[in-house]
Amino acid sequence: MAAEETFRITLRLPDGSTRVIQVAPDEPILVAAYREGLDELPSTCLQGWCLTCAGRVEGAGEWEQSLSRRYFPQDHEAGFILPCTARPRSDLIIRTHQREAMVENRIRQRLPAPRGKW
């Protein structure tokens, strides 16, 4: 039996460190990160609604976000990703902890954005 395809996901954390995890194409990135013991990543709803887990993809890469309850084409165009529901389609480099930046981007684009702290 052939080994299942996985993608290399590099997570850049606020303290300047990086973690690399392997994620299957049918697995949400956040689930894989938690499985690998990376529990300092923020999350709340796990449905792609609250933006707590928001990250930003650096450089090229593809991901699929159809499991999200609220994710817009403009989010993708700006490079924002919701790891709780995002499934990789290529290797990715993700800067984590980008909730505030994603909320600000949505406000600028006149898209719905959660207010307050989760």
Helix-strand topology string = EEHEEHEEEH
* CATH architecture assignment: Roll
Distance separating the two termini: 44 Å
**Total count of domains:** 1
Taking all Cα atoms into account, the compactness measure Rg is 14 Å
Report strand order across the widest sheet: 2-1-7-3-5
Number of helices: 3
Large-scale geometry: globular
Determine the oligomeric state from the structure. single chain
In CATH, the homologous superfamily goes by the name Beta-grasp domain
Low-confidence stretches: none
CATH class call = Alpha Beta
Care to count the β-strands?
A: 7
Structural class: alpha+beta
Largest sheet: 5 strands, mixed
Q: How much helix is in the residues? A: 10-25%
Task: Describe this entry's structure for a reader.
This protein is of the alpha+beta class and 118 residues long. It has a single domain, classed as Beta-grasp domain (Ubiquitin-like (UB roll)), CATH 3.10.20. 19% of the residues lie in helices and 21% in strands. It contains 3 helices and 7 strands. The chain has helices at 29-35, 73-77, 99-108; strands spanning 7-12, 18-23, 55-57, 63-64, 80-81, 87-88, 92-95. It has a 5-stranded mixed β-sheet. Strands 4-6 form a two-stranded antiparallel sheet. The mean pLDDT is 94.
Draw up the topology in text:
Elements: E1 7-12, E2 18-23, H1 29-35, E3 55-57, E4 63-64, H2 73-77, E5 80-81, E6 87-88, E7 92-95, H3 99-108
Parallel strand pairs: 1-7
Antiparallel strand pairs: 1-2, 3-5, 3-7, 4-6
Give me a quick take on this structure.
With 118 residues, the chain is of the alpha+beta class. Helices cover 19% and strands 21% of the residues.
